[in-house]
Amino acid sequence: MTRTLDVGVEVKPMRPAATEAVVQFVKSQQNTTWKPENGTLLELAEAYGIETESNYRGGTCGTCRTKIVEGAVSYSSEPAFRVGEDDALICCAVPGKSEQALKLDL
């Protein structure tokens, strides 16, 4: 048995995750270097005392949706809640492999 995608379902290739990345929280003017041991971008923000909304922490509700000012994010698996290229679900996102810093509107 082979599973086929429903008609109209868009499947995007997953962006590779960074191994280390500069993350800038624009509104709070906090800058840091993210490493995998820091966890998700939400966990990183919380570690720096940056308040943001979150709920389930699994990419299903969209509560943590945050504007990406510059850069890209990566997900270990495609989140259930769909967001555009300029938004991130920081509860389950990490910095994507990129030459530029990741700037978030937090």
Strand content: 25-35%
Strand arrangement, major sheet = 2-1-7-3-5
CATH superfamily of the domain at 40-104: Beta-grasp domain
Write the H/E string, N to C: EEHEEEEE
Name the structural class: mainly beta
- Give me the CATH fold name of the domain at 40-104: Ubiquitin-like (UB roll)
* Radius of gyration from CA coordinates: 14 Å
- Measured between the Cα atoms of the first and last residue, the distance is 46 Å
Overall pLDDT confidence: 89
- CATH architecture label of the domain at 40-104: Roll
Structure characterization notes:
The protein is mainly beta. It has a domain at 40-104: Ubiquitin-like (UB roll), CATH 3.10.20. Helix content is 7%, strand content 26%. The protein contains 1 helix and 7 strands. The strands form 2 sheets. The chain has a 5-stranded mixed beta sheet, covered by helices on one side. A hairpin with a 4-residue loop joins strand 1 and strand 2 (30-34). The protein is globular. The mean pLDDT is 89.
